[in-house]
Structure formats: C-alpha cells, structure tokens
Structure to design on (694 residues):
C-alpha cells in the first residue's frame, strides 16, 4: 500500500491542457467544460461503436482516457448504453455484418444524436474499399456530423474532432451570442 | 522431409525462417494431418484458393503445419470441379472455423464435417455467392437485409439461462457475440460467434499491386501492424528472392519488440482495471502513452503503421534517436519493475488473478493455443528463439514460459516478456549495422508462392502470398486469434460471469484479425 501511495505521490498530475481549436472558434480551450455544460446542460456522453475497424482507432480512443488527455476531466464520458449517449463515435468502413447493429444503436439514442466518424476508412471505405462485405463508409448508413481524419487519428485529433462536432451542431450561435 | 511414413520433396522458400512448400494427394490429406498432430506439430493456418484460371489450375486447399524443422505449406489440388475435401478437424479441432470459412468464401466443404453453420456469412450476401471465386468481382452489391439467426448450442437443465452479449459491447471494444449458458453465476458454456468485422480483405488484396499490399496487411489487426506488415513483406521478398539489408532486419525486430511492449503495457493496465484496481490502469496507460509518443517522434507513427515496407523499412534511426530509445527503455524497465512489485503484493489483485481462467497444458496443446498465452500454459513455442532468425539468434534469448495457465500466469509472462523485449531493443539499437535500410525488389518471371511467419505480440502471424511480384493473385493473412478464440470458450467454463472480462482481457484476442 505504501508503495502504491508513494507512486501516486511521485507521479503528480500529468494532464495536459485541452487542444486549442484555433480562431475559427471563439472560445479558448479552457472554457470547454463550461461550454459543454452550456450547450448540453450536462456532460457530453459518447457511445462508441466499432463497425469493422482494424482496431487501431479503438487503441487511440482508449488513449484519450489516459491521464495526459484526461477526457473525463473535460466533461466527456464514454457510456455503455446508447440510451445514455449524446454522441455516437463510429470507427471502421462499416462491414455489412455490422450495418444493422450500427443502425440499431443509432436508433436507440435520444436526441441530439451527434454522429462522429473516426478514421480515414469511415469516409469512403479507405483502404478497405467497398465490396460485397463492406459498405464503404459510415455515411452510407448514418448522417455524419463530422469526420476525423487519420489512420488512426492520434488522441489529440480525436479530442479536437469531438469538440468540433459539438460546436458545429450547437457552438457557433451560442458562442457568438455570449 | 519426413512426417511419419510420408516423404515429401518440398521446395524451400527463400525466407529467413525455414518454410517449405509441397503437394499432397487427397488420399493422404487426413493421414498427414494425423501424423503431424501425433508428432507434436501444429496447424498454423488453413485456407483455400481458386487457381482455375491458371495453367493446369483448379481449386486448392492449403494447410501450413509447424513441425520441428520449420513450416510446411501443404497443397491439396482439387481440380476444376472440386467441391469437397477431407476434414482434418479430428486431428486439429481448431480447423473447424477455418474450414467453415473456406466454405463461405469458396464454396468448398470439408466432407463429413458435422458443424456446417456458416461462419463469415451472416446473411448479408446470398449463401451461393462465393467471393473468392474468379467469376465474381467482389464488387457485387446486395440489398440490405435482416441478418440470419445463428443456431447456438443450447444448454438445458434446471435453472440454466442464457446471457447474450454483443455484437456491440459495453465498452470501447471490437464487435462479436458471446452466448453464455449460466447457472447462478457460474458459466456452464460459452459460445462465440464472430465474423462481424468481415470486410472482404482477401478479395481486396487481389485488386492491389503487390508493392502496396503491406499497407492492407498492416491493417488486418491494427494492434499487430508491425507483425502483419513484416510477414507480408517476408512473403513478397521470398517471391522476389530479395534479401533485406542487415540494418533493416535489425530495425524490423526492434519495431516488433516495440509493438510487443506497447500491447503488454496497455493490457497489464487494463487487467488491473478489470479487477477494480484503477491505479494500475492509470500508471500503465501513462507508460504506454510515453512509449507511443516516442514511436511518433522516431518513426513517424504512434502504432508504427507503414514503417515496415517491401525491401526494408521506411524510416532510419539516427544516433540521437538511439540514445533517446536507450534512455526510455531504461526508465520504463525501472517503472515496470516497481509496478510489478505492487501487483504481486496486492492481495485483492492476486485473488482475482490466481486460478482464474485456467487452461491446462493438455487442453492448450489439443486446441493449438499459441503465442504468449500458449507459453503461459507451458507450451514453449516462440518463433523468435526456435529458428534463430536474425537478429534474434545469438542473443541468449529467454522465452517466458509458465506452467499454471491462469490469468496470473498470463500476467507473469507479459511482465517477463516486457523485460526481455526491453533488453532486446537496447541490444538491437546498439548493434545497428551501418548501411542501407531498403533495397529494391528483384523482378520475377512467373507467379510463385511466398510466405511470412512472425512471432507477433499475440502469437504466430502467418501470411501466404501468390504473386508475380506485380499483381496479387491471392493473399491469405492468418491471425493467431483463430486458434486462441476457441480456447477462451474453454477457459471460462466453471468461472463466474464477472470474471469473464478479466479472462478475456488476459488473452486480449483480435476480432479484426480473424474476421478479415
């Protein structure tokens, strides 16, 4: 137990500042959490669905939860049920065997149903293309708010993409009004 | 080459590990399988090809057997009309799913195999559509439809109930379906249904130039991208008879060990988390993030995708990079040692780990458990040591082996492998020979078979490639999870449902890899 406590004490806090989205968006990054609260009235909850990825995107999505990026510290949380989710984070080019499960997950979500597609293959199938087994992109199945590029996108791009999607749907009018 | 009473005159492929190719008559197919199993050999992979358009071609079933001397790729030629071939699941039970996959992709069935349920075809395309046959392009589109129900084996009795999980799981996990038959909390039976991620990678390869195939191979299972792209490159280089420069071979091994360490670090954290010790998760995720950031800095990609390329590697390591690498290995070795002591002295953690999800050596042998999970059940197979492939030979390589076969043993083996990989990385980095990192591939006159066989972090990764160096006729990628998934079904029997995530994570099998 002493060793554990010593390790925690020695480590300190490693969390890095949230990414700045640049001048396209009017709020500085440190007000992110407040903004999410203003927009959604609660934390942002995400349901992740792997619709046929190579699993690299999952590794990087996991990494957003590590203590450097500290996603939960920004008020963003992954949830187990689509019924609790504001956002659907989809990876993979959508295999036909997953198309129905993906659609049902989306249908089970309450509004605002923000859809963010993660990785180059979600755009048009990417390296996997489109064939008898592969739908060739998330857009074929669901309306996508925002695509996050990369193969796989590194965690910082994932953070930026998630925040961009929220702002695209809600951000501008509210932000400009303040 | 002699296997029991069968003599083969195999052709040796130009690979750095011993791989042979031979043909086998239909009459001997089952007996050879039996002889390989009896002599302690393993079935590494089983796949089918359509060579009807080639001269004197037809359908071909291929089996890759690991023997004491190396890997033997045996071909069974079925002719133009072939529709069936002898079943080898009596010798290798884990051939079942591979044979069902061949039936789904090529329409060739294993005679007398009782289990004929489709494996990859969930009903999204017609049952008589076989994507790997030459007469179809693979681009055929079929209307969206309801998927078919799968006849799971029912367990009946007083108080037995089923728990259906997936394909969409509760966390950030790949999709697959688990059907538990449970009494109270105790698991009586688990049956897996996979194939949800099947996206036609085998057919997709046939559209690609051979020189680009390494990118797709590197995305068969993202967590094993180095292993798959290396195995693909080894196969292509064997076809082109090209020997990679020494510096490239050392760098490839260094990358493979970095991939191994990254995955073990992540899983050791996740294992503690599944036993409610979140401290472990945060600490190991920090180490893993540091590790991946140095990958990005030195090799331009956090997960090392597209760094291993045909003929060598894409990125060289400068002297400053070497010293950063050495410093990091030293630091991580020390931290992992500390965390290991904390894990080992944590009573709650050990209580969850010890005797959970046990796989005995006998079961592991019968079911072909491979990779670090096999070594944790006392199967001392590790391609890095077994054939002395450069640069692994001559480094006093220590295999991590354990007898118990439970979650605790798999944790121990992972800790041991991290320590050994860190030692190897430091050795490889300091030994790097000067010179080129990539050479051009030589041209070839005809279509040949090439193969690659690599000990990835999870287990044996195998790639078989038929190509003339320009076009890909057929490329088959084999993930070690093919063998290990059915073992998980056995590992959970008699355990309680809440221990399933822990047992599952201790193997951490790939869904994308076998689904292809």
């Amino acid at each position: 137990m002493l060793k554990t406590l010593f390790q925690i004490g020695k480590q300190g806090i490693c969390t890095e500042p949230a990414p700045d989205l640049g001048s396209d968006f009017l709020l500085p990054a440190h007000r992110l959490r407040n903004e999410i609260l203003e927009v959604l009235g609660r934390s942002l909850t995400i349901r992740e669905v792997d619709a046929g990825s190579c699993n690299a995107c999952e590794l990087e999505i996991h990494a957003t939860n590590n203590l450097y990026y500290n996603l939960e510290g920004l008020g963003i949380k992954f949830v187990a049920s689509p019924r609790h989710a504001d956002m659907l984070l989809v990876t993979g080019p959508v295999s036909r065997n997953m198309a129905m499960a993906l659609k049902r997950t989306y249908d089970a979500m309450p509004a605002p149903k923000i859809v963010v597609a993660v990785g180059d293959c979600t755009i048009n199938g990417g390296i996997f293309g489109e064939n008898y087994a592969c739908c060739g992109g998330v857009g074929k199945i669901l309306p996508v708010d925002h695509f996050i590029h990369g193969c796989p996108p590194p965690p910082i791009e994932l953070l930026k993409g998630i925040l961009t999607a929220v702002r695209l749907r809600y951000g501008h009018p509210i932000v400009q009004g303040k | 080459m002699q296997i029991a009473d069968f003599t083969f005159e195999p052709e040796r492929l130009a690979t750095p590990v011993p791989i042979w190719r031979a043909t086998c008559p239909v009459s001997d197919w089952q007996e050879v399988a039996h002889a390989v199993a009896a002599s302690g050999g393993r079935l590494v992979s089983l796949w089918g090809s359509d060579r009807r358009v080639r001269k004197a071609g037809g359908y071909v079933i291929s089996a890759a057997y690991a023997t004491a001397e190396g890997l033997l790729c045996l071909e069974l030629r079925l002719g133009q009309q072939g529709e069936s071939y002898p079943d080898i699941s009596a010798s290798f039970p884990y051939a079942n799913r591979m044979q069902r996959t061949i039936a789904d992709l090529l329409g060739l069935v294993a005679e007398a195999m009782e289990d004929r349920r489709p494996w990859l075809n969930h009903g999204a395309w017609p049952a008589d559509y076989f994507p790997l046959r030459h007469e179809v392009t693979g681009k055929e589109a079929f209307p969206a439809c309801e998927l078919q129900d799968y006849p799971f084996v029912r367990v009946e009795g007083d108080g037995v109930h089923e728990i259906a999980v997936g394909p969409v799981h509760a966390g950030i996990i790949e999709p697959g379906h688990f059907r538990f038959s449970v009494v109270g909390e105790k698991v009586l039976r688990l049956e897996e249904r996979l194939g949800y991620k099947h996206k036609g990678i085998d057919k997709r390869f046939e559209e690609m130039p051979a020189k680009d195939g390494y990118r797709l191979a590197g995305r068969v299972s993202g967590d094993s991208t180095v292993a798959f792209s290396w195995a693909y490159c080894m196969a292509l280089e064997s076809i082109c008879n090209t020997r990679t420069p020494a510096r490239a071979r050392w760098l490839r091994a260094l990358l493979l060990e970095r991939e191994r360490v990254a995955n073990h670090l992540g899983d050791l954290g996740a294992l503690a988390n599944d036993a409610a010790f979140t401290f472990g998760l945060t600490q190991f995720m920090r180490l893993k993030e540091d590790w991946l950031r140095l990958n990005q800095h030195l090799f331009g990609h956090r997960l090392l995708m597209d760094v291993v390329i045909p003929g060598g590697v894409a990125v060289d390591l400068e002297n400053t990079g070497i010293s950063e690498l050495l410093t990091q290995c030293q630091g991580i070795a020390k931290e992992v040692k500390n965390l290991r002591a904390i894990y080992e002295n944590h009573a709650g953690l050990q209580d969850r780990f010890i005797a959970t999800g046990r796989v005995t050596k006998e079961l592991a042998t019968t079911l072909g458990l491979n990779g670090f999970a096999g070594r944790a059940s006392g199967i001392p197979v590790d391609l890095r040591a077994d054939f002395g492939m450069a640069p692994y030979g001559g480094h006093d390589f220590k295999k991590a082996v354990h007898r118990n076969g439970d979650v605790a043993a798999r944790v121990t083996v992972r800790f041991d492998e991290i320590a050994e990989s860190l030692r190897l990385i430091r050795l490889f980095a300091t030994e790097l020979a000067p010179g080129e990192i990539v050479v051009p591939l030589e041209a070839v006159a005809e279509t040949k078979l090439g193969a690659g066989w690599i000990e990835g972090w999870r287990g044996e990764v195998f790639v078989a490639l038929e190509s003339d160096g320009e076009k890909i006729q057929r490329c088959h990628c084999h993930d070690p999870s093919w063998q290990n998934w059915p073992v998980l079904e056995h590992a959970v029997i008699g355990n309680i449902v809440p221990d399933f995530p822990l047992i599952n994570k201790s193997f951490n099998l790939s869904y994308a890899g076998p689904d292809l």
Summary: Chain A touches chain B through 50 residues (CB under 8 Å).
